[in-house]
Amino acid sequence: MPRTPVDGTRLRILTLLREQDTSADGLTAEAVAARLALPRPVALTHLRLLTALGLLRTGRSGGRVRYRRDEIRIAEVAQLFEKGWQRPRPRRDPPRSGTLR
Q1: Burial (0-12, 13-18, 19+ Cβ within 10 Å), 20
Q2: pTM of the full predicted structure?
Q3: What are the tens digits of pLDDT across the range 22-80?
Q4: For 25, 70, 80, 87, which has the most beta carbons within 10 A of its beta carbon?
Q5: Burial track 35-71 (b if 16+ CB lie within 10 A, e otherwise)
Q6: Distance between CA atoms of 70 and 55, rounded to whole angstroms?
Q7: CA–CA distances in Å: residue 33 to residues 5, 41, 46, 75
Q8: CB count, 10 Å around CB of 29?
Q9: Do 31 and 13 form a contact (C-beta atoms < 8 A)?
Q10: What are the backbone angles phi and psi of residue 96, rounded to the nearest 5°?
Q11: In the chain, what is the straight-line distance between the N-terminal and C-terminal CA atoms, in Å?
């Protein structure tokens, strides 16, 4: 079962990436860790999870992996939350008349 952090680390990472001027390259795991006072492995774990969820995009610059927000995907997820995670209801066929033999 995946663990969910209650301290809001992932939200802090998303906020940091939004606030930084990362339009060109993004931030490295080391930069995120330093700015949020996290151990690098912890920051990297959160960054990889956010990337796997599609909320972050990665690129390489200077031989280092850099992370930046995927604003389109974040907007899609936000819209799902606003709708309350409503799923389409399964279509039910009307009952058939007659008897089964």
Answers
A1: middle
A2: 0.72
A3: 556 789 999 999 999 999 999 999 999 999 999 999 998 888 999 999 999 999 888 88
A4: 70
A5: eeebeeeebbebbeebeeeebbbeeeeeeeebbbbbe
A6: 5
A7: 16, 8, 10, 25
A8: 21
A9: no
A10: -85, 145
A11: 47
The token pair at 26 is 């993004």
User: Token match 């151990």: residue?
Assistant: 39
Q: Which amino acid, one-letter code, is at 77?
A: V
The encoded tokens of residue 85 equal: 């995670």
Residue that the structure tokens 């939200």 belong to:
11
